[in-house]
Automatic annotation (TrEMBL):
PANTHER family, alphabetized: INNER MEMBRANE METABOLITE TRANSPORT PROTEIN YHJE, SHIKIMATE TRANSPORTER
Organism: Streptomyces dubilierae
Ranges in coiled-coil conformation: none
Main subcellular localisation: membrane
Membrane topology: Multi-pass membrane protein
Basic and acidic residues bias locations: 450-459
Cell membrane listed as a keyword: yes
Ranges annotated as spanning the membrane: 58-80, 92-110, 116-135, 156-182, 202-221, 256-274, 294-317, 329-349, 355-380, 392-413, 419-440
Localization terms from the record: Cell membrane
Name this protein carries in UniProt: MFS transporter
Keyword terms, alphabetized: Cell membrane, Membrane, Transmembrane, Transmembrane helix, Transport
C-alpha cells in the first residue's frame, strides 16, 4: 500500500476491540429478534394469530410466516448490498439494525386475531417480512466489518465474532421467554407444557418490546465505527460500481452459486436444531404425531445447554480455519454432518441422555460449520461487490435451507409415524450438496480483501487476489 503523502493525516482506524464488539452486538440483536419470533411461532402464535381446530395446521401456518421472512432476506441482501457497496459498510449497518429493531418492537404491540381478525395476521406477516429484509443486510455487513478490519492471519477468527451473535441471541431470547414463563406460571391443575393465560395475554410481548433497549445499545456502538480502509481505498480509486448487483451476477455467478450451496447444510442444521427441535421436543408422546413429551421449560433449558457448545465451537472454528484453510476445515465438518444425520434417530432413541447428546453434537457441528462462513463468503468476492455478493449467497441459501426446512421436517416427522429418522436423512442429503460445492470450490484463506493487493497472511503459500469480472 502506498505511503501517505508527507504532512497528510493518517486515515482513522477502528480499534480491534471496537470492531469485534460492533460486529458481535449487531448480529446478537438481529438473531435475538429472529429467535424470539421463532420461539413465539411454536409457543403462542398458533393460538393468537392462526386459530385452527387442527393444531398441526396452526403450527404450519405460523411456520409459513417464519419462512416468509427468509424469502424477504435476499431482497434485503440486494438493497442493503447496493447501499453497502456504494455508500459504505457503516451507514448501511446502522439502517439495517434500525429496521429490524422497529419491526420487532411493533410485533410486541400488535393486536391478536381475537381482537381484529385477519388484520392481525396480515400485520404480523408485514412485520416479519421487515425483519427478514433487515437481516438480509445485517449479516454480510457485520462480517465485512470484522474481516476487512482483521489483522494478518486472523481473518477467520475475527469472522467468527458476527457468527457468535447467533448462539448469544438464542440464549438471551429464550432466556427471557423462560423468565416470563417462570414469572407467569400456569394455574394449578393446568397443563404445565402450555403457556399461562397471563403469558398468552401479555407476557409474550415483553421480549419483543425489550429489543428496543438492545437496538439503542447497538446503534451507539456502531455509530462510533469508521469506514474500513479497504472500502475507503476502493472508493478513492474509483472502484465503486454503479450497479453492484449487475456486476456480481455478470462476473461472479459461479461464486454466488458455490457460496449459496456451501451455506446450505449450515442453514438446514441450524433450523432443525432450533425451530423443529422445539416442536418435536414439546409434542406429547401420545399425540397423533408423537414427540418427546418434554415440558417447554425443560426442553428449552436442554436447548440452551446445547447452544453453549454452539457458541464455544464457533470460536474454536476460527483458528482451525486460519490454520488449515476454510475449505479443508469445512469438508471434514460437513462429512461429520452427513454422519450425524444418519445417527440422528438412534441417538434420540436412547432416552434423555441420548437427547442431550443429540443436542450437544448437533450444536457443536453447528458452531464448527457456521464459524468459518464469516470469512469464507466475503473472500469469494472483490471489495466493490463484496457486500452484495456475500449477502446474496448467504440469504438465498436461507430460502433453500431455512425457509423450507420446518415444513419438510414436519412432513417427514409425520411420514415416519413420529420417528425423526427421515428428518436426519434429509439433513444428510443437504450436507452432501454442501460437500459437493466445497469440493468444486477453491481455498480462499490467501485471497486478499484489498482489491489489487496481495494478501499478507504470513503463510508460505503464494497469495492470490479475488478474481472475477468487475
Amino acid at each position: 500500500m502506498p505511503a501517505p503523502a508527507p504532512g497528510s493525516a493518517p486515515a482513522p482506524v477502528n480499534p480491534r476491540s471496537r470492531v469485534l464488539v460492533a460486529s458481535l452486538i449487531g448480529t446478537t440483536i438481529e438473531f435475538y429478534d429472529f429467535y424470539i419470533y421463532a420461539t413465539a411461532a411454536v409457543l403462542v402464535f398458533p393460538q393468537l394469530f392462526f386459530p385452527s381446530s387442527d393444531p398441526t395446521t396452526a403450527l404450519l401456518s405460523s411456520f409459513a410466516v417464519f419462512g416468509a421472512a427468509m424469502v424477504a432476506r435476499p431482497i434485503g441482501a440486494v438493497v442493503f448490498g447496493h447501499l453497502g457497496d456504494r455508500l459504505g459498510r457503516k451507514k448501511t449497518l446502522v439502517v439495517s439494525l434500525l429496521t429490524m429493531g422497529v419491526a420487532t418492537f411493533l410485533i410486541g404491540v400488535l393486536p391478536t386475531y381475537a381482537q381484529v381478525g385477519w388484520v392481525a395476521t396480515a400485520l404480523l406477516v408485514l412485520m416479519r417480512l421487515a425483519q427478514g429484509f433487515a437481516l438480509g443486510g445485517e449479516w454480510s455487513g457485520a462480517a465485512l466489518v470484522a474481516t476487512e478490519n482483521a489483522p494478518s492471519g486472523k481473518r477467520a477468527l475475527y469472522g467468527t465474532f458476527p457468527q457468535l451473535g447467533a448462539p448469544l441471541g438464542f440464549i438471551i431470547g429464550n432466556g427471557l421467554f423462560l423468565l416470563m414463563g417462570a414469572l407467569l406460571p400456569s394455574a394449578a391443575g393446568a397443563d404445565p407444557s402450555q403457556p399461562s393465560d397471563a403469558f398468552l395475554g401479555w407476557g409474550w410481548r415483553v421480549p419483543f418490546l425489550f429489543s428496543a433497549v438492545m437496538v439503542a445499545i447497538g446503534l451507539w456502538v456502531r455509530s462510533r465505527l469508521v469506514e474500513s480502509a479497504v472500502f475507503t481505498r476502493t472508493r478513492a480509486s474509483g472502484g465503486v460500481r454503479r450497479l453492484p448487483l449487475a456486476t456480481v451476477v455478470r462476473g461472479h455467478g459461479r461464486q454466488l452459486v458455490l457460496g449459496t450451496f456451501i451455506m446450505l447444510a449450515t442453514y438446514v442444521l441450524f433450523y432443525l436444531m432450533t425451530t423443529f427441535s422445539l416442536s418435536y421436543g414439546r409434542a406429547a408422546k401420545d399425540a397423533a404425531v408423537p414427540g418427546l413429551g418434554y415440558g417447554y421449560t425443560t426442553f428449552v433449558l436442554m436447548l440452551i445447554f446445547g447452544v453453549l457448545f454452539f457458541a464455544a465451537f464457533t470460536l474454536v472454528s476460527g483458528p482451525l480455519a486460519d490454520r488449515y484453510g476454510r475449505r479443508t476445515t469445512l469438508i471434514w465438518i460437513t462429512a461429520a454432518i452427513v454422519v450425524f444425520g444418519l445417527v440422528w434417530a438412534p441417538l434420540i432413541g436412547l432416552g434423555t441422555l441420548g437427547v442431550v447428546l443429540w443436542l450437544v453434537l448437533g450444536f457443536t457441528l453447528m458452531g464448527l460449520t457456521f464459524g468459518p462462513m464469516g470469512a469464507l463468503l466475503p473472500e469469494l468476492f472483490p471489495t466493490s461487490v463484496r457486500y452484495t455478493g456475500s449477502g446474496i449467497s448467504y440469504n438465498v441459501s436461507s430460502i433453500l435451507g431455512a425457509a423450507v426446512a420446518p415444513f419438510i421436517a414436519v412432513a417427514l416427522w409425520e411420514a415416519g409415524d413420529g420417528s425423526p429418522w427421515l428428518v436426519g436423512v434429509y439433513l444428510s442429503a443437504m450436507a452432501v450438496l454442501t460437500l459437493t460445492a466445497l469440493l468444486l470450490g477453491k481455498e480462499t484463506r490467501h485471497v486478499s480483501l484489498d482489491d489489487g493487493e496481495t494478501a499478507r497472511t504470513g503463510d508460505r503459500t503464494p497469495s492470490v487476489t479475488a478474481t472475477g469480472g468487475s
